[in-house]
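Annotated sample (chain length 124).
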Amino acid sequence: MRRRVGHTERSAVGEVRRELRAFLRHRSGAERIEEAELLLSELVTNALIHTRHGAVVTATATPAALRVEVQDFEADLPAPYVPNADDGTHGRGLILVRSLADAWGIEARALGKVVWFELRGEGV
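Output written by the structure step:
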C-alpha cells in the first residue's frame, strides 16, 4: 500500500486508516489491524501537524511482519517529549508507538525523514 497525503488533508487520516484496514483484511487478525490503524493514525497526524509538505505512507506485509512507514519532507527529527499530566492528549503519539509496536524508528533521508513501526507475529 502506498498513499500520498497532502499537508492540508486532515481528513486523510481516516481514509489512510481505511486503506490500511482493507490492505490487511486477509493478512492479519482484527487485534493487530486495530493496533496498526492506531499507530498509523499517530504517525500520519504527527506528519501533518508538524511538517508543511504532506507525507507518503507505505505499508508492506509479509507472513511474519507488517511494516508501516510515514515519510515527510522536513529534515528536523522529532524531539523526545514527555507530556505533563495536565497536558490532555498532546504529545503522546510516539509514546503509543513505542509502547505498542514491536519495533519502530526514525531514519533521516535525503528529502526529509521516515518514521516507521513494525508489528510482528504469525499472520500479521
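Annotation: The chain is about 35% helix and 30% strand.
Annotation: The first strand starts at residue 2 and ends at 5.
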